[in-house]
Design a protein that fits this description.
The chain is mainly α. It has six helices and no strands.
């Protein structure tokens, strides 16, 4: 299953993106918030590391910058319509340039499977003694709301890890 992202780019991005995604996941589980500083950090990683990870792909680098703007506009609209949280929208925009456009279809499969796994894991932990490991997390008591940063952050990490293994 070849990915369109290069293994080189994925290998450069993953070590920088992984801690930010862990921060996003932890923050969203703990407080149902994705910090703006995490989103700005992710964007900064693309701006700096992208120059190294994509040296011969200048048009793709610029398209990644355009993807930030386009996804942010759609995210603002989705947030205004009540379809997703503002932090989720901003995270999607910051994550967009890391995704090769040719991998959009496989990314949707990764995201769908991962969303289901994250949701089930969160709900199992919520209703079992596992909850005692983090008793003060806001995500336990938000009713039907789910911390999407959990699924979004882990999806980006999985995509880049798979890109290292199966990228061009």
């Amino acid at each position: 299953m070849p990915f369109d992202i290069t293994s080189w780019a994925a290998a450069w991005f993953l070590p920088f993106v992984l801690p930010v995604c862990a921060w996003v996941i932890w923050s969203d589980l703990r407080a149902m918030r994705i910090p703006n500083t995490s989103v700005m950090t992710l964007t900064g990683i693309y701006l700096v590391v992208g120059l190294i990870a994509m040296p011969s792909l200048w048009p793709a680098y610029v398209m990644g910058l355009a993807a930030i703007v386009i996804v942010l506009i759609f995210g603002i609209i989705a947030n205004a319509a009540g379809l997703m949280g503002a932090g989720d929208s901003k995270f999607l925009a910051a994550a967009a340039p890391f995704i090769h456009p040719g991998d959009a279809r496989i990314l949707m499969f990764i995201f769908a499977a991962n969303l289901l796994a994250c949701f089930v894991t969160h709900r199992i932990a919520k209703y079992t003694p596992l909850r005692r490991m983090a008793p003060d997390w806001d995500s336990w008591d938000k009713g039907r709301k789910f911390p999407m940063g959990f699924a979004l952050g882990s999806t980006l990490v999985m995509y880049l890890a798979f890109g290292i293994l199966w990228g061009q």
